[in-house]
Design a protein that fits this description.
The complex is a heterodimer of chains A (440) and B (243). Chain A has 440 residues and is an alpha+beta fold. Chain A contains 15 helices and eleven strands. Chain A has a three-stranded antiparallel sheet with strand order 1-2-3, covered by helices on one side. In chain A, strands 7-6-8 form a three-stranded mixed sheet. A three-stranded antiparallel sheet of chain A has the order 9-10-11. The radius of gyration of chain A is 22 Å and the shape is globular. The chains are: A alpha+beta (440), B alpha/beta (243).
Chain lengths: 440, 243
């Protein structure tokens, strides 16, 4: 390359980011390069393992949701649903249409809260060259206040329906311990309506800054729930951009193919290639045809096309999804208010069986599988977390991306790699049931 | 007034208690007018070894983590344990009910011997270092954290409630969960949550730990009255590391 001046020939890059910041959990980036030759280029996950699959053994089916919700504070609703759906599958428990709608609404609340947090608090500082959102509160006060307001509404949905912002209380096998009032639903409707112009403000700000995102592309397999003609988060089968037909949820173990990698306390996954990706971009690539009008409009204004394979654009897809979940939430509330809330509390009798639940966490598809004995005591569990499914893909992105940027200044290389990791919105507490960055 | 320098750290946990700080929304912006965050990995890239108050979430599951916590303790004037994983051990302590090697094999099969998977008996923070203040709960209620910080700012000792959840539950006029044939840990669990779970028609699972001197006699009476055994209660007590 013409830029390879003699000074660069002798340059040593030694990056060792222990515990990448603005991430949920601990991950390390380790890069070592001498004279332009990359010697080490690793994504490592050293988070303390927590062993949830072992810990739930011996617990009653009534306690599983309470325990596994604690895998992750930021996707506690999704983990609860993974467990509840698996329990209901194992015990042939049917839920009412009202329960399904209220669960979906709670789930949309979590997507909105998590995406607002990730794009607004964790990624925006990268785009504005700041180390955190704290200085932005002064320099970009209106934008920060807009993000806070969107985030608050996502939380409010979870609180009004699930009983708490984090670690929902009311979600039970078969239904809810307590139902929201119609006044609660009307309050949510007004708050969600007010959220649309705020999302337009956020989208305009991100559109202005998205030009600063690297133009890196790498083809990979994308995996997400599919359920035509919807853009699913809560139900469907397993779709892949490498397959024309979906795979039943019950067969998820043949999809994830978990294996241990010495770089990581979290398991890694692969399906048709050496890696695959899950998350907002995967959902978009598989289901973009079924977006609601405002979400489709936002995608169009960002120039986001189906088949996009720039991982940095995951954050843009998250903004598109914020519109999607708000539009769908308003429709659900409309249906719930027109039919009225029916008071119902589930009474469930345990039975022996094996069940699987698949749901979309904000950061990608999540699988829970449990086996219960006749008393409803859990005897075996297998959980496969979205961030685990992305680890191998992050590593392969490193291997493709670092050679493209290695002639740049070390701080810039580090910054770009941190941004790459952050774009996946990794949730390492989940995935080790862990994350950390190291440039050596 | 000089703003105290605050650092937030996390060990094995779900990071849901830090999330409650973010969840303060607009109020967090005003809190930031009174304190200076100098390190908070989940939210900031800034790092510092110079801080007055360390807020620590999570429990200790490895020797390397115990050593890191001891370093934090040395540097901080005040150490606050944030949430059930830090104050009690939380759900992480469920692991202690099993043989450690068996737990590793159950999750990681033939890879269980990888050095990276080293794990030890789970400990709450006070089992490793001195803890000055505890914010109970899974997750915490941010109002309790702001209360403790306000106390520190004005030089007053925080006084957490030392009566059981039943007191707040009665004030909330809830029907007792035992009347629904459920096991509820309200009679022995420290209040301060405004009986959040029973108020949402769910039993108390003891995430705030026991009051200092639990009225075991009264709790036993409740169990007998409803035909439950102390054994039933003990199974629930293990959920959040209370016992």
């Amino acid at each position: 390359m013409s830029t390879a001046a003699p000074t660069i020939k002798t340059k040593t890059i030694d990056i060792n980011v222990r515990h990448v910041t603005r991430l949920e959990g601990h991950g390390n980036i380790v890069v070592r390069a001498k004279d332009g030759v990359i010697e080490k280029n690793e994504w490592q996950v050293p988070e303390a393992p927590r062993f949830f699959e072992a810990m739930v053994r011996g617990r009653s089916f009534e306690d599983i949701q309470t325990v596994v919700s604690r895998i992750c504070g930021i996707c506690s609703v999704t983990h609860s649903f993974g467990a509840l759906k698996a329990i209901e599958d194992a015990m042939d428990i049917k839920v009412s249409a009202q329960t399904s709608m209220l669960r979906l609404l709670t789930h949309y609340g979590e997507q909105l809260e998590s995406h607002a947090l990730h794009v607004g608090y964790l990624v925006a500082p990268d785009l504005l060259n700041q180390k955190s959102v704290v200085p932005l509160a002064a320099s970009h006060e209106d934008l920060v206040k807009t993000v806070v307001a969107i985030h608050r509404v996502g939380n409010l949905v979870m609180e009004k329906i699930g009983g708490r912002k984090t670690h929902p209380i009311r979600l039970l096998p078969g239904g809810f311990s307590m139902l929201p009032s119609e006044a609660d639903l009307r309050e949510l409707m007004h708050e969600l309506e007010d959220t649309i112009p705020r999302l337009e403000t956020l989208a305009a700000a991100i559109a202005d800054l998205a030009g600063g995102l690297p133009s890196f592309e790498r083809e990979t397999e994308y995996v997400a729930l599919v359920n035509p003609p919807t853009y699913p988060f809560y139900e469907g089968q397993i779709g892949s951009t490498d397959l024309n037909t979906p795979t039943p949820v019950a067969d998820f173990e043949s999809v994830v193919n978990e294996y241990m990698h010495p770089q990581s306390t979290a398991k890694w996954c692969k399906w048709h290639r050496e890696s695959y990706a899950v998350g907002a971009l995967a959902r978009y690539n598989l289901n973009a045809d079924y977006l609601q009008p405002l979400a489709a409009g936002a995608a169009h204004s960002f120039g986001l096309k189906k088949g996009v394979c720039n991982p940095f654009l995951n954050n843009v897809a998250q903004v598109v999804e914020c519109f999607q979940v708000v539009e769908r939430s308003l429709q659900l509330i409309d249906v719930l208010l027109s039919t009225g809330i029916t008071q119902e509390r589930p009474r469930v009798s345990p039975k022996a069986g094996v069940g699987v639940g698949a749901v979309e966490a904000p950061r990608g598809i999540l699988f829970h599988k449990y086996e219960f004995d006749e008393d409803g005591i859990c005897t075996r569990a297998n959980l496969c977390i979205p961030t685990n499914q992305n680890h191998a893909n992050i590593q392969l992105d490193f291997e493709a991306f670092v050679p493209q940027i290695i002639d740049r200044d070390q701080d810039e290389v580090r910054h770009l790699m941190e941004m790459l990791v952050r774009s996946y919105d990794p949730c390492i507490s989940c995935s080790t049931h862990y994350l950390n960055v190291e440039f050596v | 007034m000089i703003k105290p320098r605050i650092a937030i750290f996390d060990f094995a946990c779900c990071e849901g208690c830090q999330l409650q700080i973010v969840n303060m929304e607009e109020e967090l912006l005003s809190l930031l007018e009174h304190v200076q965050p100098v390190e908070w990995r989940e939210a900031m890239s800034d790092q510092s070894d110079d801080y007055d108050i360390a807020i620590v979430e999570g429990s200790i599951t490895r020797e390397e983590d115990a050593n890191r916590l001891r370093e934090i303790r040395k540097r901080a004037k005040t150490l606050i344990a944030l949430g059930a994983c830090a104050t009690l051990g939380g759900v992480n302590k469920l692991k202690n009910l099993f043989d450690l090697e068996e737990v590793k094999t159950a999750v990681y099969a033939e890879s269980a011997s990888l050095p990276i998977l080293e794990t030890a008996t789970v400990q709450a923070l006070h089992e490793v270092v001195d803890v000055d203040y505890r914010i109970e709960g899974c997750p915490i209620d941010a109002a309790e954290l702001t209360y403790v910080i306000k106390c520190l700012l004005i030089g007053r000792a925080p006084a957490p409630p030392n009566y059981p959840v039943c007191v707040e539950c009665k004030l909330a006029e809830n029907v007792c969960r035992y009347d629904y044939d459920e096991i509820c840990l309200g009679p022995i669990t420290r209040a301060g949550c405004r009986a959040r779970c029973p108020s949402n028609a769910f039993w108390c699972f003891g995430c705030r730990g026991p009051v200092d001197d639990p009225n075991v006699h009264a709790a036993t009476q409740v169990m007998e009255q409803y035909g439950k055994t102390v054994e039933d209660l003990k199974v629930k007590l293990t959920l959040f590391g209370t016992q």
